Amino acid sequence: DAGVIQSPRHEVTEMGQEVTLRCKPISGHDYLFWYRQTMMRGLELLIYFNNNVPIDDSGMPEDRFSAKMPNASFSTLKIQPSEPRDSAVYFCASSLVAGDGGEQYFGPGTRLTVT
Amino acid sequence: QQQVKQSPQSLIVQKGGISIINCAYENTAFDYFPWYQQFPGKGPALLIAIRPDVSEKKEGRFTISLNKSAKQFSLHIMDSQPGDSATYFCAASRGNFNKFYFGSGTKLNVKP
């Protein structure tokens, strides 16, 4: 298996532009997570899906952020409009089962820079 | 409010030494405690995990210790090697919920 696939790996954009990050989870995994990692705040869970349905989006910082999972093999995280403070590494992760034993497999991340 | 507090923020250990990273939590409902290892430019990967039915779990040079009464758990890396240099995250979750609360991370540097 190729693991969790994220694209792009790097994104540089100007403030105010729309940014779309993409994720392909491991085939057969029912859970998908979006995380943001910064030096100041560490690893933060933004939102997670179970069987393509958003379960908990309490970590989404504000309305500029939105996430979708139209099918079991694809998810997007969109920022519109982007701001410099959104600069971070965004990780997508997937897991097979819930809770105990639900190892989360992380993708390589997308490094976003907003100028 | 940070659900899991991790220390130290950074750690320098000589090759062959013991690396110790500590985490503390408040929510007594937490019942799954994984540790993730992250190398530069990579996503975190599961290293080792423990449930509250045991107080210690060892896998090779890596050991997790859990003190439920103190609500603390720790990672010990014995005979630390330069290849162990990475950032380590503790995490906690409860029941069948798959939401992990991660600590802030510890950057470990093992000097040759």
Short description:
Chain A is built from no helices and 11 strands. With 115 residues, chain A is mainly β. The model of chain A has no long low-confidence stretch (mean pLDDT 93).
- CA(first)-CA(last) distance of chain A: 36 Å
Number-wise, the strands of chain B total: 11
Mean pLDDT of chain B: 93
Task: Report the largest inter-chain contact.
Answer: A-B, 26 and 26 residues
Which series of helices and strands of chain A comes N to C?
Answer: EEEEEEEEEEE
Oligomer: heterodimer
Total E-strand runs of chain A: 11
Largest sheet of chain B: 6 strands, mixed
Q: What is the overall shape of chain B?
A: globular
Low-confidence stretches of chain A: none
Structure, described:
The complex is a heterodimer of chains A (115) and B (112). Chain A is mainly beta and 115 residues long. Chain A has strands at residues 5-7, 10-13, 19-24, 31-38, 42-50, 53-56, 65-71, 74-79, 88-95, 105-106, 110-114. In chain A, strands 2, 4, 5, 6, 9, 10 and 11 form a seven-stranded mixed beta sheet that branches. Chain A is globular, with a radius of gyration of 13 Å. Chain B is 0% helix and 53% strand. In chain B, strands 2, 4, 5, 9, 10 and 11 form a six-stranded mixed beta sheet that branches. Chain B is globular, with a radius of gyration of 13 Å.
Describe the secondary-structure layout.
The complex is a heterodimer of chains A (115) and B (112).
Chain A: E1 5-7, E2 10-13, E3 19-24, E4 31-38, E5 42-50, E6 53-56, E7 65-71, E8 74-79, E9 88-95, E10 105-106, E11 110-114
Parallel strand pairs in A: 2-11
Antiparallel strand pairs in A: 1-3, 3-8, 4-5, 4-9, 5-6, 7-8, 9-10, 9-11
Chain B: E1 4-7, E2 10-14, E3 19-25, E4 33-38, E5 45-50, E6 56-59, E7 62-67, E8 72-77, E9 86-92, E10 101-102, E11 106-111
List keywords for this structure.
heterodimer, A: 115 residues, mainly beta, 11 strands, globular, B: 112 residues, six-stranded mixed beta sheet, five-stranded antiparallel beta sheet
